[in-house]
Amino acid sequence: MTEQSAKKHSFQAEVAQLLHLVTHSLYSNPEIFLRELISNASDACDKLRFEGINHPEYYENDPDLHVRVSLDKDNKTITISDNGIGLTAQEAIDNLGTIAKSGTKDFMSKLSGDQKADAQLIGQFGVGFYSGFIVAEKITVESRHAGVDAAEAVRWISTGTGDFEVEQINKASRGTDIILHLRDDAVDYLESSKVKQIINKYSDHISLPIEMQKEVWQEDAVAEGETPQGGQMVKTDEWEAINSASALWTRNKNEITDEQYIEFYKNLSHDFDAPLAWAHNRVEGSTEYTQLLYVPSKAANNLFTREAKAGIKLYVKRVFIMDEADNLIPNYLRFVQGVVDSADLPLNVSRELLQESRDVKTIREGNTRRILTMLDGLAKSEDEQDQEKFKQFYAEFGSVMKEGLGEDFGNRERILKLLRFSTSNNDDISTSLADYKARMKDGQKAIYYVTADSLNAAKNSPQLELFKKKDIEVLLMADRVDEWAMEFVNEFDGTPMQNVSKGAVDLGDLQDAEEKKALEAAAEQFKPVVDKLSDALKTKTKEVRVTTRLVDSPACLVTSEGELSPQLVRMLKQAGQAIPESKPTLEINPEHPLVKKLESSNQFDDLAHVIFDQAVIAEGGLPEDPAAYVKRINSLLLK
Ligand code: ADP
Ligand code: MG
């Protein structure tokens, strides 16, 4: 094949926009370009190791993988080279000219103008390569994919504006050279001491050697007999590793500083903030593995979307196997970031195989236990800092944890212990179920809770009126996931949990005989009204009955035990799900003047519908026919 002349390509529109942003908004933290490019080089070596399992010829008699950073003061270039998998011409065009990940638009919209915050986003959204343009006016990439002919290597050149050029070149060595032509204001990065320091800071844990040319002190040449007055550092042909090049998780715990753990986390997760906590263990037994698991301090933007991915990387005997290993952590702990290195799994393990492996199940259970124990430790700790951490953890991840109630039956009790709620007596989301139990009234036999669309709606729910009157504390739940999750929970620590908007209220011993008698009497007295109401509202309600649970409100809606509440029905409908129609029960307060008025009203039908619609509104819904509702209200107002 003959050498072809360079071909121009345009960047995908988004890339062009991104490049502009990168160079204009991230210049206050320029050094991250080294972290990003070294991380790409290291990924490329990981990929070679992985593909080399099935294609040993890819190693081309050059099995020692490394990254090399070289500085050229004369040409003002810094070059990051690796002998990893390399890029084919097509890959160079695709991977360096477009952004495959859908997150880019998101990325742009998230840029806040706060450069520190924006700098971390760049890594999160997989646009690391372009960070080179923070310091370079031009980037040349020369690459040869493993196994490809030397004559069919590729050169990619761009100044980071609208387009890039691609041409075929000859390149003997496998892998990729990223050559940054530094801008005049970035020539600092030609100082080896500075570059070493940055590599140590960001990339010390990278498990392959990052090498620079060894420098030696050379004294100035002088005439015979004179002593030299000075000298300079000059480069030799020898390369030396400047990182410790042992994967952090393989090292001994006591030899790792907190700073190293934190830096490793930041690299792993592309999070700019330190993690809240971590656990590092070598687990021995029938399944042997090392786990290094982190709890981030903030929830990722996509935590609650379908795009959310598990944050665990799987290694087998230090060989990188895959990202986002979702078999190694349950879905409700998807916020956990970390590394699992297994001694038992085969190197060619696939996602399908992982699903069936007993070892994987053991590892997942081990990871789950470790995280739950760590969180429990924070929750129980007397240390103020730990308490603060737990609070932050809960604010960020509390609602994800609740998914575990439906997902992980074996750990339900452990998860319940970690949950915190606000209550009718205390707005702070700080009451644990154990706290609640300790405050229960004499004779109280259940843990009461109410679910609603918002905390305010929960707090002011008519269903709570009697509880307030009797000063019985009720847990308020307003997370979207609450009602679904609580369906799986019947009790905590031997005490039943009861949703006060479901089924008839049974306050047990908290209600004295006299009150019960009064209710029976009222039910008797109101029977004709109740019958008439049932008839007027028969298309809307399953049943109408008298209640003592209300104090200030005329009526409320109640769902039967085991049925979906109106909130959940609304939510599912919004999500486009078909749900079986079920009618609520209407409970009326015989003490309320409006209800009393029903007995004598000559507008019975209007009043009945208004009372029903108001009950719908009180729990956050809309009347089925708002116009009819308004008409009825107005007609009643005019009387
Ligand atoms: P990410 O690393 O998150 O995929 P980057 O913007 O850092 O995003 O890199 C984009 C892509 O360019 C990589 O996914 C990879 O395919 C390719 N790439 C970048 N650097 C190298 C390299 N040194 N060797 C091989 N491929 C590379
Ligand atoms: Mg990258």
TrEMBL record:
Residues 29-186 form the Histidine kinase/HSP90-like ATPase domain. ATP binds at residues 36, 40, 82, 95, 101-103, 124-129, 176, 351. Pfam families: HATPase_c_3, HSP90. The keyword DNA-binding does not apply. PANTHER family: HEAT SHOCK PROTEIN 90 FAMILY MEMBER. Molecular chaperone. Has ATPase activity. This is Chaperone protein HtpG. It comes from Acinetobacter kyonggiensis. The gene is htpG.
